[in-house]
Design brief:
Number of helices: 6
CATH architecture: Orthogonal Bundle
Number of domains: 1
Helix content: 55-70%
Strand content: under 5%
CATH superfamily: lambda repressor-like DNA-binding domains
């Protein structure tokens, strides 16, 4: 069964995954790790590693996380959607602030 992710993925998301794949390939090469060794360490096939390095959206995020972990880069994965850096979310939150704060009086 083939995933429709490749065909329905927005252009900017497709570009981001392609960049991630290229960056993973460069990081692996800088560390002198062969594709055979990386695939074995990640418990995936060389073909799957090739798909990761191409930024294929049908590869599970768990496999991307495993490869990033092996490269020592997984810590930044948790910050991808960091709440404090979500400018749109912060703006929307600010737009919903009440105009006035009323103090409740005790009777």
């Amino acid at each position: 069964m083939h995933s429709a992710a490749k065909h329905t993925l927005p252009w900017d998301a497709r570009q981001a995954l392609a960049k991630l794949g290229e960056d993973i390939a460069v990081a692996r090469k800088k560390r002198g790790i062969s594709t055979v060794s990386m695939a074995e360490r990640a418990f995936i096939s060389r073909n799957t590693l090739s798909q990761v390095e191409k930024g294929n959206p049908s590869v599970s995020i768990a496999i991307y996380a495993t490869v990033l972990s092996l490269l020592g880069l997984v810590d930044r994965l948790g910050d991808v959607a960091e709440r404090s850096e979500d400018e749109i979310g912060l703006d929307l939150e600010e737009d919903n602030l009440p105009e006035r704060i009323r103090v409740k009086r005790k009777r």
